[in-house]
Every structure is written in structure tokens, then in C-alpha cells.
Amino acid sequence: MSRTVHGPGGRAAILVSVGALLLGAAACSTSHAGTSGTVTLSIGGKQIVDPARLEAEGERELAYTVGFGYVSPSGTGLPRCWFAQLGLTGTVDERLWCGPVQVPGSPPTNAWVPISMKKTGENDSQIQLQVQPPDVPIPGNRSTPVSDSLIRADGTTTNPKAVVNRTASANFVAVLTDTEHKSNAELGLTEPAPVRVHDDLLAVNGTGYGRPSSFPIGDGATLVPGNGSQLRVLRLHVERPGKTDPAFGAQQWSGWGPQQSTLSLVVAGRRTMLSPDRLPDSGDVFLIYAVPDKPDPPESLVLGSVGANSLEQTVAVPDGRRAAKAPASLATAGGVSKVPANASQKITARTAVPYGGLPAGDHAAELTVTGVRLGRQRPIKLDSGDYQLLTEVADGKALLEVAIRTTGQLPAIMAGPVTKNSFALTLPDNSKAKLMGVRYDGDLLPAALVFEVPADVRSVKIGVSTGAVTVSALGRVDLTAGAPIDLPLDFG
């Protein structure tokens, strides 16, 4: 007979059965419960037949789950299966709880794998059960028993929430939020970590690395390596523009919308994708993992850009060496430039008719650059109101986004799709960059402009050009502008 072991999120693998099935319902009249003579366990007031056998079968099922790398043992010895007590003497939950284990990408605290049990027979006083495939938590998540008291058929008990030291064995990968901000020296992270990789939605920078013999994981508990394993800790600073940049949060997209980038750890050829839920929008984490005593090949991080033009960037840990050259559009340290304090331009808009409480005539305003990004993908807003994600694929080119804010007495009318052509971005060779698109709201001028530029550009000039435009409900609008803004680009 075959057995199905469920992996994370309901994935299944068919395995050859290695254990006998439970007795048929007709055998329920013969009690095997409490064979150790210590405890009687019951569900719904009926005594469980042979709970020790259920524990053993659950442990065999869990062994397959461990073998596939869906979870990693994290206690002393192999994980064991327990019944969860429900308050009344001997009354237990209808599932086994097996552990402690580590679910890849979750915090380094005790996790348990629930295993459901199916009723195969019963009489007035007894119930016979059969273990089902383990219900493995998806990566980055963990399950905890429904009770603070776990018990085995021999009467052994344990508290699943007790603070205990943990062991990092094969396939152990944990993400721990850095809340105490201790120094690297205090934590034994004494090696440099020049790991830097980013795209337009996710950026990670290594800030510390170490091979400690143990590592604190909170509440006084300590993590140590298991037999045949060594401990590694990579400290990372994480930025997720895909979550913090409002431009990526639009609801209506034409074509592919932005897809959250992924971050994966590769150890000894095995790849573990870190759950995005465990990465902060802006903050620091420890990536804690086990490697074999002789790791081959060395570990690495993989940043995956997902979408119609997918991309993977692989960097070695801890030296940051790239497996392949980064696209020119992502060659800067982080893609975000500092903006000079005086990045502004005086403009005047002359209207022929009054609008929104403003009389006809000259209206003075000031245009200020508030942000600059250089990268491979940027969102724009089409004339239809839908958003579109631009991706630069030309060799040696990048997308430069310039965000602007306009203050003054301009008419409050949505005219960005028209006035966008009044802007010019001048490159160092005095040529004009191609305008790829804009984002706009309810103002006369756009809120952001996206240009195609040489990826190695380090200074530009941008501003409104003097001229006339025709705006619905306003008619002719004459724009008069001062000198364009000199914009040095400093990406750190």
C-alpha cells in the first residue's frame, strides 16, 4: 500500500508504506490502550486503542517529512509525537502533535507538526484511530499545539511553549527579527559581509556575518549546531520598496502588475525561499541556518524578480561575489539617489479663463524634486487611468524616475497627461532623454516622470520648458520657466 505525505501548503508525495495499518473496526473490542500501565487517553469519553502505536506511526510519517526537508529537527534527538491534553483527565485532542521542529524561514522558536487521526472503529467504551499524512506548515509559518500540556502513552509530559535551547540540524533555516540591535561583536558576527543585491521592489544589504558556536534566539534560549552541522548567521538590512512605495500599490494595472520579489537561501545545493511575511518593509533581520561540516558548494542568496521579464541575481555568502554580472540598470548600490536641498525651479502659468476660484492671469509656482530612482522597473499611469509597469531591457539603459511636488497658485485640474510634454531631461552630452511615461493625480503638472537614460548617468538637468499647452476646461495655458534644475545623481 502507498502512503501520501503532505508537504507545505498541501503538496503531496507518494511513498512506499513502511508500517502496518491499524486493526479493523472489528478488533475494537480488544483493548490495547494504556499498555504501559500508566495513563488512559480518551477522545469524546472513549478510550483510545493503543495510543503508543499511534505515536510510533506518527513518528514514521514525520520522518518522511523531515527527509524531504519540509521541516528540520530542532530539539535533542529525533522529534516525537504527543497527544495534547484538553483539561479533563486523559481527554486529548484528535490530532498528534509532533516536534519540536523548525519550519524553514520561520522564527527560531519551537514549531510542531499536527497529524490528524481518522476514526476506523469504535464501541461503547473504545475508539480506534489511524494516523493521516502530516499537515506541514507552509514555509515561514509554524503551528503550535492547542494545549500547554502534551502527554505520551507512557505518561511522559512536556510543555510545548517552554523556553528551551534549540539545535540547528540539516535544512535548518530561520529568520529572526533584530529587535535588540546588539553590536556584531557582542553576537560573535566578526566577519565582513559585503552582500548587496537589489531590484526595484526588494533590497538586502549584509551588515554582519559569523560562524558562532551558539546564538541567542530570545527569552534566554540559545541555538547550537547539531551533529555534523555548523551554525551560520547573516545579518541583513532589508528594504521593500514594493511595499513602501505607494506607486506599486495601485489597484488597476494594464498587463503585468508588480509581483513581489523573492529572496532565497541556497545551502549545499538546496534552495529555501524565505517567506515575504518574515521580511520587514524596512528593518533588520538575522538569517540563521545550518551548513554541513564541509559545505559544498558555499551558500548563496538569490534575489528573484518575478513577472513578464523575470530575473535572478545570485550572490555568494559572505563575500558577495556575483554568479553573473548584474543588469546595467541595477548596477548602483541601491537605486535611490540623494536629492539636493535646492532642487527647484520657478515657473509661471498664465491662464485665459478663471477656474476653481482662481482668476485668469499669471499664477506663480515652484517645482521641487522630491525623489530620484534609477532602476529596471517603474510604474507609470496611462491616460486611461490604469497603471503600467515599465521594464527596461535595452543593454546599457535604465529607467530614471524623478518625483516632483508643485507649490503655488496653480489651477487644481488633472492635466498631467498633457503637461508632461512640457518637461525635458537633459543628459550630460546635451541630448534629451526619452520620456517613457508619467504618474499624475489631480494637479496641473505630473507627480513623477520616468525617462530612459544611460545606466551610468550621474548628472542630469530637468525642468519645465517655456511654451504653451492646451488643457481641457482651461484652454490655452502659457508656461514660463526659469533655469532647469541641476540634478547630480548620488546612489551611494
UniProtKB/TrEMBL annotation:
Residues 1-33 form the signal peptide. The keyword Signal applies. Residues 134-155 are annotated as: Disordered. Keywords: Signal. This is LigA protein. It comes from Kutzneria chonburiensis.
